Amino acid sequence: MPLLNYKKTLLCLLIMVACLNYNIAKAQSEAKPRIVITADPELDDNNSLIRLILYSTDLQIEGLIYASSQFHWSGDGKGTKWHVPGREYDRFGMNQCPCESWRWAKGEKFIHEIINAYAKAYPNLKVHNKDYPTPEYLKSKIRYGNIEFDGDFSKDTEGSNLIKSLILDNKPGQLYITVWGGASTIARALKSIQDQYEFTTDWTNIKAKIARKVVLLPSGDQDDTIAKYIKSDWPEIETRQFRDAPNYGYGAQLRAKELNKPLLTPAWMQENVTSRGALGSLYRVWGDGKQMVKGDMVDYFGLSGYTSEELKKMGYFVWMPPQEKGSWLGEGDNATFMNMLGNGLRAYEKGNYGGWGGRTRTLPEGPNIFAAETTAEQMAAQMGNSNSQSNNDAVAFPEFFPAAQNSFAARMKWAVTPKFMDANHEPTVKIQGNLKVMANTGQKIKLNGFVSDPDGDKVSVRWWQIPAGSYQNKVEINNVESLQAEILVPKDAKAGQTIHIILEANDNGSPMLTSYQRVIIMVR
Questions:
Q1: What angle do CA 179, 340, 274 make, to 5 degrees?
Q2: What DSSP line would sit under 499-510, residue for residue?
Q3: What is the pLDDT of residue 20?
Q4: Is 390 part of a structural domain of the chain?
Q5: Run of H or E residues at 64
Q6: Is residue 392 part of a domain?
Q7: 333-389: per-residue pLDDT in tens?
Q8: What does the DSSP assignment read for 218-271?
Q9: In terms of domains, do 292 and 182 share one?
Q10: The domain containing residue 337 runs over which residues?
């Protein structure tokens, strides 16, 4: 065999092995959380769904359900008029309702359109990760829920029936149900279960099962059904409201940290998102010329070149200053699912573990809190380059936005890249041994890590403490940039407290991609 052909054959074999090892590693990673998406046709719901679909490798998607909210509802098509005091249509002096529908396009199919775009990208995506579900599977999970009127859960729908069947099935693991719009479809599923079983001998067991199984992940309470029905009649159901999340919402660029600003610009969005094939063409940015519903006087986001005052004179109800054409618009529902991803942080296991979607904390301000609080100074203290961390002060929650954005950009590139070798892929990181370690106060624990990269990139590592454990002060970590680290369990730690340590791996590919593994130290 000529030397040139031999080298080509060897290169092809090495690429095949890399692809095989990468996909085996992904397949052997953490169990996939079962998740249901309920969403109304808001701009940021559209964008969040595009991101979520690119991570369908990491999730067991059980439902993609159209929902209503106070911001979007379809009406019943029979001329019935609807009005709930204090809703969006009562603000800004609009006085538009009672009305037959509110900001809902005739034949609304944004979920269908995203899955159709996914189908076009699927041949490329599956080259980069074999765990991508088929378009046919995802299409089979689409349903319309209680979309006619906001807050109305008086009747069963295809969407509520699907959620009911998932809640009652006997598959292992918890069922995570997101609430990107209103929760009326979920409320209907629970009400149907209540109506069917409340006065039977099975009721106690069914309620206990649902309390163990169901986790609600809401973006607030957009039709009051959580407060008025779910929390009152189903108080045992866990509801996770995330705080300290990266700012994925509308106008993130208005208050972005210097670290994050470059990832929200028109240039970045064009290069990494909107130019990336069918999915990119559906992704909404400022000034893209699109509108959710023709004549929607709340949706001026597709316009460019106008000031707030000019938009107001045109009849628009301006609640946020217009931004530069092509820049970030928003993915406000990301916090509900970003902790479900299989990046090694295991953030879905408990709400306070924390990850790319933030973390849950009990706060005096109320239950519907979404904010990113870590300052640049805190970040520098948390992520410094010193060889050890001193045991003083509380640990700051890390800034995850750059890692999340880089990962999103990489997967958008997968969607338009037919060869594995022409895109970047996450490194693999493992901590050897048990990921729950028992230790005494004052004890030194040695942790050994292992990293590899499917593209052959150089990988750097870093050990750090995430403030998820019940021991809140910093612990001393020696050799933080080595695969072999040493943790000193503080002498003031109490029996039963936990310390969470992360091994982070970053490749030097473009964009730089990050993976993690978490180990939990339990003090005895």
A1: 80
A2: EEEEEEEEE-SS
A3: 47
A4: no
A5: strand 60-66
A6: no
A7: 999 999 999 999 999 999 999 999 999 976 444 443 333 333 333 333 333 333 444
A8: ESS-SSSHIIIIIHHH-TTSEE---BS----STTGGGG--TTTGGGGSHHHHII
A9: no
A10: 31-247+332-378+401-423
